[in-house]
Structure formats: structure tokens, C-alpha cells
Design a protein that fits this description.
This protein is mainly beta. It is built from one helix and 13 strands; from the N terminus they run E-E-E-E-E-E-E-E-E-E-E-E-E-H.
Length: 136
């Protein structure tokens, strides 16, 4: 019995796009495009365009624009984010402007900058906090 079978014609499918990992110690600069998801534990300077999920791991650092369906920040990101969903985990920090539909910030998660709901209204983080305190 062999490992390879000449009769198998398995072709990669766009629907089966996996996750690309940028490991700790890596430094990438430029424009990056992903049809699947990407997990970043290294350093990226430049713009990231991703069809699915961009995760900035605990040791990850990103400086530039991130455009994706979902962005999860557990490390450090600076620049602009354009997504449907964004999560800033307890170890994460985002500095810049986030354009979003839905946002979650865990305790000890940090967002310094502006929030822009995709409906078009820009809110400064201080306004969001004041709105939460008044029940709006």
C-alpha cells in the first residue's frame, strides 16, 4: 500500500483556504492579501487585506491598515481597521481608527483612537464611554 495514489486529482479549493501564520521573529513589510485567515505573532508593517479573520497574537505587532471580515487583537496594532467585527482581547491594544459593525473590548483591552460605525457616524472613544455611563 502506498502513500500516494496517481488516481487522486485533489485540487485546492478557494472554499478550503486555511490560515497563514506569521511566526514570532518574522518581519514583513508591504501589502499582504489573504483569501483565508492570518495569525500574526511577528511584525508586519504595511496594509493587510484579508477575506476572513486577522488575528494579532500576543507577540504580534501590526502597523498599517487592516481590512478583514473579523479582526482579533491580542497583541499590538496601530493604524486603521475596517471590518464587520472587531475584538480587542485583554492583552490587546489598538491605536488608531476602527470602522466596524460590531465591537467587543475585554477588560484590560485598550483602544486609543476613534470608532466609526459603518453607518457613518464617528465617535471618539470618550464619547462612547460617556454614552455608556449615561445609558445611551
Amino acid at each position: 500500500m502506498g502513500i500516494f495514489n496517481k488516481g487522486d486529482n485533489i485540487k485546492p479549493s478557494a472554499n478550503n483556504s486555511g490560515t497563514t501564520i506569521i511566526s514570532e521573529g518574522s518581519h514583513i513589510s508591504g501589502e499582504l492579501r489573504f483569501s483565508g485567515s492570518v495569525h500574526i505573532d511577528g511584525t508586519v508593517e504595511g496594509n493587510i487585506f484579508c477575506e476572513k479573520v486577522v488575528t494579532v497574537g500576543k507577540k504580534g505587532k501590526v502597523k498599517g491598515k487592516i481590512s478583514a471580515e473579523k479582526i482579533i487583537i491580542n497583541g499590538y496594532a496601530e493604524g486603521e481597521a475596517d471590518c464587520s467585527y472587531v475584538e480587542i482581547l485583554s492583552g490587546g491594544k489598538f491605536v488608531g481608527e476602527v470602522t466596524y459593525n460590531e465591537i467587543t473590548i475585554e477588560p484590560q483591552g485598550v483602544l486609543e483612537g476613534n470608532l466609526k460605525l459603518k453607518t457613518g457616524k464617528i465617535k471618539n472613544i470618550k464619547e462612547v464611554k460617556a454614552g455608556n455611563e449615561t445609558g445611551k
